[in-house]
Specification:
Number of helices: 5
Strand content: under 5%
Shape: globular
Helix content: over 70%
Distance between the termini: 39 Å
Oligomer: single chain
Length: about 180
């Protein structure tokens, strides 16, 4: 049942984005100029650009995202096994950990992220988020008590909530308008 609920929420997100975020489709932007005369790269071309020129502005954001997501997804993939071995968590109790990280991520994005961007800018927030994500991933296996583990784990959703939206905003700002 939880998987069906999660899948339903994902479907609602897609429908919401399709309906209320028309800027993702140039043809749906009010008053948008047609793409005639503009060279639009294929996805393959854009991907090759990321590999060929990793230090260029937009490809650098793609690499930051890929490395951050690799760290985050690797952690979530082994977290249940680690918690079972270290703290005796079961399939009935592991949900509390993911609820904790999810709730912290929502609070960060809904309440704190905007204030931090106002204060530090997207670049500063992206750097802070990347540092907190890396620190959290390094610290997770060190504590042997739940409160200290929770403090280390909290750095991961805090870091991702700061890193990914700021990185996406910067990537969008630096990408060519027609892309």
């Amino acid at each position: 049942m939880p998987g069906l609920i999660a899948g339903g929420l994902c479907l609602l997100n897609v429908m919401f984005a399709w309906r209320w975020l028309p800027e993702t489709s140039p043809s749906r932007q009010p008053g948008a100029a047609p793409l005639v005369g503009r060279a639009v790269r294929s996805i393959r071309g854009a991907m090759w650009d990321v590999v060929r020129r990793p230090r260029a502005e937009v490809p650098r954001f793609v690499w930051i995202y890929a490395i951050g997501m690799l760290g985050f997804m690797s952690m979530t993939g082994v977290l249940a096994l680690y918690l079972k071995a270290e703290f005796g968590f079961t399939e009935k109790t592991i949900g509390l950990v993911f609820m904790f990280t999810g709730a912290l991520s929502v609070v960060m994005r809904a309440i704190i992220l905007g204030r931090m961007i106002d204060r530090f800018g997207e670049t500063g927030v992206m750097r802070i988020g990347g540092a907190l994500l890396a620190l959290g991933l390094v610290l997770i296996p060190l504590p042997h008590t739940l409160p200290l583990f929770g403090a280390a784990l909290a750095l991961v959703p805090i870091g991702t909530a700061l890193l990914f939206p700021a990185k996406t905003a910067l990537g969008t700002q630096h990408a060519p308008d027609h892309e």
